[in-house]
Amino acid sequence: MKSIYYLLFYLTNCFSVPYRLTAIDYFYRKTREKIARKLFRYAGKEVVIRPKLKISYLSEISIGDRSSLGDRNMIVASGGLTIGADVMIGPEVMIFTQNHAIPPIGKKLIEGEVVTKKVTIGDDVWIGARAIILPGAKIGKGTVVAAGTIVPGKTYPENVVLGGNPAKIIKSRESEVMH
User: Fold this and answer.
1) Over 90: is that where the pLDDT of 52 sits?
2) pLDDT (tens digit, 9 = 90+) per residue, 119-164?
3) CA angle 169, 69, 167 (to 5 degrees)
4) Where are the alpha helices (DSSP H) in the chain?
5) What's the chain's Rg over C-alpha atoms?
6) Is 179 one of the annotated active-site residues of the chain?
7) Cystine design at 101: which of 41, 66, 113, 155 (Cβ 3.0–4.6 Å)?
8) Which listed residue (30, 45, 54, 100) is catalytic?
9) DSSP 3-state of 106
10) Residue 164: which region, alpha, beta or left (left: phi > 0; alpha: psi -120 to 50)?
11) Is 147:132 a contact under the CB 8 Å cutoff?
């Protein structure tokens, strides 16, 4: 039965529906959401999974309520990926949870071990287009990751704006001002 869900996920992932065709787009989104519940470790309510994803290790992914994966994301989740609630992930974002260790001289690079590290994305995070999230990254609640940012495997605080290569704190998000 699981192979049927993989096939359905693949088929609904291949086609993008123009935004103007809202009824069909809604049907596709709901179908992918239901399939994700069968294949992901956890998929919350009202999850949006845009088309053309390249995604592996689906059973290692948890995604919270009202979170979205953008068009053409590339996700390798062998080390585990937790995405909180209300997370917006823009198009062409790459998330990696594995890398190759660099072996000592005398050993071929291709012989280096594969190392996996979980990636955690907190609630209410916005990840801009073409950002790259590397193994071991922990992005705090309420954080904005600017487009094109490369986020190494470190822990980042809550409510900041990250940008650059490697990611640095550009500023803290401001509190809402009462007038």
Assistant:
1) no
2) 999 999 999 999 999 999 999 999 999 999 999 999 999 999 999 9
3) 15
4) 2-14, 22-39
5) 17
6) no
7) 113
8) 100
9) coil
10) left
11) no
